[in-house]
Amino acid sequence: MSKTLAQKIWDEHIVRRAEGEPDLLYIDLHLIHEVTSPQAFDGLRLNKRVVRRPDLTIATEDHNVPTLNIDKPIADPVSKLQVDTLRANCKEFGVRIHSLGDAEQGIVHVVGPQLGLTQPGMTIVCGDSHTSTHGAFGALAFGIGTSEVEHVLATQTLPLIPPKTMAINVEGSLKPGVTSKDIILAIIAKIGTGGGQGYVLEYRGSAIRALSMEARMTVCNMSIEAGARAGLIAPDEKTFEYIKDKPHAPKDFDAAVKYWSTLQSDSGAKFDVEINLDANELEPFVTWGTNPGQGLPLNSSVPNPADISDAEERGAAERALTYMGLTAGTPLKKIAIDTVFLGSCTNGRIEDLRSAAEILKGKKISSSLRMLVVPGSARVRLQAESEGLDKVFIDAGAEWRNAGCSMCLGMNPDQLAVGERSASTSNRNFEGRQGKGGRTHLVSPLVAAATALRGTLSSPADL
Amino acid sequence: MEKFIKHTGTGVPLRRSNVDTDQIIPAVYLKRVTRSGFEDGLFAAWRNDPDFVLNKEAFKKGTVLVAGADFGTGSSREHAVWALQNYGFKVVISSRFADIFRGNSLKGGLLTIILSQEEVEDLWSVIESAPDTAITVDLESRTVSYNSILLTFEIDDYTRWRLMEGLDDIGLTLKQTDSIDSFEKNREEYKPKTIPVLK
Ligand code: SF4
């Protein structure tokens, strides 16, 4: 029988299948961070259970950590407690942890791939919804809640119901200045924030094949913003090449590649749904509202809710415009920005920094805004510094920070003030996501850099 | 986990769609390392608004939240479920839930029920005009009833059984340890390991 890639990986990991019960699925890699794990470790302790496979588990600190003065103790006592709790739990249960100051510390979804722990055909989970990022390697990777974290710690398995599959075919080639971030924002605007619910999205087609591994991660990262738990891209030469020199690359690399090469949807495989997108048509995309589906090409204007026929959506658009402080009809490019945030597990990798630096090189950011550049991991920061990118950012007037989730979410010291407006390369523009009352426009690193120079939402073509 | 068989309570109408997890509980409230006390963060951004439904006297004792479509989108934070439970909710009704939120809620014993958007709208009008209306959710018969209305909902047999027995998923899986052991024996060697720290 022909199978989709998702079905193949699923079937390879079934520990037990019984009529009327969810499948018991084996988990190859469990990533952990400080926010969604303390109650799980507590549960283990309470029930006198151990971590079944500490050697398939790895922890890092990302959500709560400051990106300045990281050599000093964390100032916020509650954040500090959470990080200290993670450290103590990892010590007690024998789990490897990359703490602040360690070269491998960083956002959990940047760290897994850069260590070579993320490999094709694996099942990967983490108590974080953007675990979908790892799907870029052809791994079935999804976010879980804390009860499930505890379940995986104790059993290295999860009881799950097989997902449906959706093929998203992106054919053609991107125009200059258009990136993988624009692909995924366009997909979400097309299928909606609930469009992927219950599905694994498999991104296919020539435009996807042409993307680098880092750009593929950006696409898979935001699968969750379309409601899907997981995104997948079949592995190819680029994938193998990326993993090859990483610390955890398989010793018997040829055997691994032989298996990885079988990891594609069979030609006759049937997806539950198929969607097509023309890459040639895409423009730089930006969100105007308070969910990632409320996005438009940068050349358009703020939409008029009165033009939306669906009552539910109209109401949501009206509320979004009020919250965002925007007037219908305003050209998106006229919107003035206070803060540019370049970072997060969506766009905090080395290529993202390189592409933004390219635009900023030898120029100064607008005096009307601040720009935070936050590498996704300490390793990315080191790499960027070895290439002199830090100088480019600093000379342009941006702040060069240490690794972490930073302004992607309002949990650590990097936050928007009430009413402040950002152009952000992160993934969520929810009300208050970047700080209470903060207003977020999601953009690509190229748009972020161009916006930093001009002070209003801009694409590189406007420079 | 407490058993869930049947619950009767009053409703709280939350006429909003796409209520994401950052609205249910903002990130600043996620710093606790315990499972309790999250009620203070529930819908924090809206709680200052006197017109917000939870601030209205008539709805203060509600235990059945009736929400708009796409409830619980966004992050995987189970704190969203704990916040609702800590506040006192036993059931959430919506026409569509985000997958991870729904999974988390059913693991933790907060019953999430999918009704059609029309049924949700009817329920909204009824509880808005008569907040004292008793709503009964019966997991055994898979029904929601109020006044003389009886609605049915779907839930898979396995989850229903687990909730009705109040069973801990981990305990159930640990009974399958033999299957896990034998699966691990056949696991390919080239799969990566993280090298654990030595104790
Ligand atoms: S960078 Fe943002 S989306 Fe990614 S893990 Fe951190 S908080 Fe979550």
TrEMBL record, chain A:
* EC id: 4.2.1.33
Transmembrane regions: none
Name the coenzymes or cofactors required.
[4Fe-4S] cluster
Q: In which pathway does it act?
A: Amino-acid biosynthesis; L-leucine biosynthesis; L-leucine from 3-methyl-2-oxobutanoate: step 2/4
Please list the GO biological process terms of this entry. L-leucine biosynthetic process
Q: What broad class of enzyme is this? A: lyase
Q: Which InterPro entries match?
A: 3-IsopropMal_deHydase_lsu, Acnase/IPM_dHydase_lsu_aba_1/3, Acoase/IPM_deHydtase_lsu_aba, Aconitase_4Fe-4S_BS, Aconitase_4Fe-4S_dom, IPM_dehydratase_rel_enz, IPMI_cat
Name the SUPFAM superfamilies for this protein.
Aconitase iron-sulfur domain (SSF53732)
Which CDD domains did the record assign?
IPMI
The protein's UniProt keywords, in alphabetical order, are: 4Fe-4S, Amino-acid biosynthesis, Branched-chain amino acid biosynthesis, Iron, Iron-sulfur, Leucine biosynthesis, Lyase, Metal-binding
Q: Name one GO molecular function term.
A: metal ion binding
| 4Fe-4S keyword on record | yes
Cite the Aconitase/3-isopropylmalate dehydratase large subunit alpha/beta/alpha domain residue spans from the record. Answer: 7-455
This enzyme catalyses: (2R,3S)-3-isopropylmalate = (2S)-2-isopropylmalate
Name of the molecule in the record: 3-isopropylmalate dehydratase
Q: Which organism is it from?
A: freshwater metagenome
UniProtKB/TrEMBL annotation, chain B:
Catalytic activity entry: (2R,3S)-3-isopropylmalate = (2S)-2-isopropylmalate
Q: What is the lineage of its organism?
A: unclassified sequences, metagenomes, ecological metagenomes
The Gene Ontology biological process terms listed for this entry are: L-leucine biosynthetic process
Question: What is one Pfam family matched by this protein?
Answer: Aconitase_C
Q: What class of enzyme is it?
A: lyase
Against Gene3D superfamilies, the record matches this protein to: Aconitase, domain 4
PANTHER family linked to this entry:
3-ISOPROPYLMALATE DEHYDRATASE SMALL SUBUNIT, 3-ISOPROPYLMALATE DEHYDRATASE SMALL SUBUNIT 2-RELATED-RELATED
- Tell me its family: Belongs to the LeuD family. LeuD type 1 subfamily.
Show the GO cellular component annotation of the record: 3-isopropylmalate dehydratase complex
| Keyword check for Amino-acid biosynthesis | yes
The EC code for this enzyme is 4.2.1.33
Please identify the protein, giving its name as recorded: 3-isopropylmalate dehydratase
